[in-house]
Amino acid sequence: MRKLDHCNIVRLRYFFYSSGDKKDEVYLNLVLDYVPETVYRVARHYSRAKQTLPMVYVKLYMYQLFRSLAYIHSAKQLVRGEPNVSYICSRYYRAPELIFGATDYTSSIDVWSAGCVLAELLLGQPIFPGDSGVDQLVEIIKVLGTPTREQIREMNPNYTEFKFPQIKAHPWTKVFPAAYPPEAIALCSRCWSTPQGPPHPSRGLRTLLL
């Protein structure tokens, strides 16, 4: 993180370790630049007011997110690890190949997460709110349908013989209200394609939405 220097990435100033109350309990403490506002707080404000987030905000936040991901990926890094904020459960944004236990994956896992963020900004709530790893996969299948054997092989070949319930993909018109721009829904769909399919973040910047 200390090597990342980009206007859309919060700068890491310093880090240190501290001991916890239990034996062998160690905490990693990060000292970051102060950011007075967060996307989560802005989105929650509109959600509590039962209003949709203005599309100009959605475009602005997603533009910054894809810019930062493009920079990070150009540095040959991935966004991994548990978030250090309590209000975000990384499970909601986790790509299915990670749920399948894949150890060999690409930058597509970050693009998947970006699609989840976009959907949440549009809907005002997480689109895949699983309570566990298995439940998370169920939530994904309920929207996108049962993955094909080839898709499962791409994610983790150890599960190709596993029998999944056959569920058809939910129509996008029933997932997102008709008022939302079709280009926003198209970008979500592109982010959630197979592990080999999601666009590079720089291509996300060139979509009709942004």
UniProtKB/TrEMBL annotation:
<keyword id="KW-0879">Wnt signaling pathway</keyword>
<dbReference type="GO" id="GO:0008286">
    <property type="term" value="P:insulin receptor signaling pathway"/>
</dbReference>
<dbReference type="GO" id="GO:0032436">
    <property type="term" value="P:positive regulation of proteasomal ubiquitin-dependent protein catabolic process"/>
</dbReference>
<dbReference type="GO" id="GO:0030424">
    <property type="term" value="C:axon"/>
</dbReference>
<keyword id="KW-0472">Membrane</keyword>
<dbReference type="GO" id="GO:0005634">
    <property type="term" value="C:nucleus"/>
</dbReference>
<dbReference type="GO" id="GO:0050321">
    <property type="term" value="F:tau-protein kinase activity"/>
</dbReference>
<dbReference type="GO" id="GO:0005886">
    <property type="term" value="C:plasma membrane"/>
</dbReference>
<keyword id="KW-0963">Cytoplasm</keyword>
<keyword id="KW-0808">Transferase</keyword>
<dbReference type="GO" id="GO:0005524">
    <property type="term" value="F:ATP binding"/>
</dbReference>
<dbReference type="GO" id="GO:0030877">
    <property type="term" value="C:beta-catenin destruction complex"/>
</dbReference>
<dbReference type="GO" id="GO:0098978">
    <property type="term" value="C:glutamatergic synapse"/>
</dbReference>
<dbReference type="InterPro" id="IPR039192">
    <property type="entry name" value="STKc_GSK3"/>
</dbReference>
<feature type="domain" description="Protein kinase">
    <location>
        <begin position="1"/>
        <end position="210"/>
    </location>
</feature>
<dbReference type="GO" id="GO:0010975">
    <property type="term" value="P:regulation of neuron projection development"/>
</dbReference>
<comment type="similarity">
    <text>Belongs to the protein kinase superfamily. CMGC Ser/Thr protein kinase family. GSK-3 subfamily.</text>
</comment>
<dbReference type="GO" id="GO:0070507">
    <property type="term" value="P:regulation of microtubule cytoskeleton organization"/>
</dbReference>
<dbReference type="Pfam" id="PF00069">
    <property type="entry name" value="Pkinase"/>
</dbReference>
<keyword id="KW-0539">Nucleus</keyword>
<keyword id="KW-0547">Nucleotide-binding</keyword>
<keyword id="KW-0418">Kinase</keyword>
<dbReference type="GO" id="GO:0048511">
    <property type="term" value="P:rhythmic process"/>
</dbReference>
<dbReference type="GO" id="GO:0016055">
    <property type="term" value="P:Wnt signaling pathway"/>
</dbReference>
<keyword id="KW-0090">Biological rhythms</keyword>
<dbReference type="GO" id="GO:0032007">
    <property type="term" value="P:negative regulation of TOR signaling"/>
</dbReference>
<keyword id="KW-0217">Developmental protein</keyword>
<dbReference type="GO" id="GO:0007399">
    <property type="term" value="P:nervous system development"/>
</dbReference>
<dbReference type="InterPro" id="IPR011009">
    <property type="entry name" value="Kinase-like_dom_sf"/>
</dbReference>
<dbReference type="GO" id="GO:0030154">
    <property type="term" value="P:cell differentiation"/>
</dbReference>
<dbReference type="GO" id="GO:0005829">
    <property type="term" value="C:cytosol"/>
</dbReference>
<dbReference type="InterPro" id="IPR050591">
    <property type="entry name" value="GSK-3"/>
</dbReference>
<keyword id="KW-0723">Serine/threonine-protein kinase</keyword>
<keyword id="KW-0067">ATP-binding</keyword>
<dbReference type="GO" id="GO:0090090">
    <property type="term" value="P:negative regulation of canonical Wnt signaling pathway"/>
</dbReference>
<dbReference type="GO" id="GO:0008013">
    <property type="term" value="F:beta-catenin binding"/>
</dbReference>
<dbReference type="InterPro" id="IPR000719">
    <property type="entry name" value="Prot_kinase_dom"/>
</dbReference>
<protein>
    <recommendedName>
        <fullName>[tau protein] kinase</fullName>
        <ecNumber>2.7.11.26</ecNumber>
    </recommendedName>
</protein>
<keyword id="KW-0524">Neurogenesis</keyword>
<keyword id="KW-1003">Cell membrane</keyword>
<keyword id="KW-0597">Phosphoprotein</keyword>
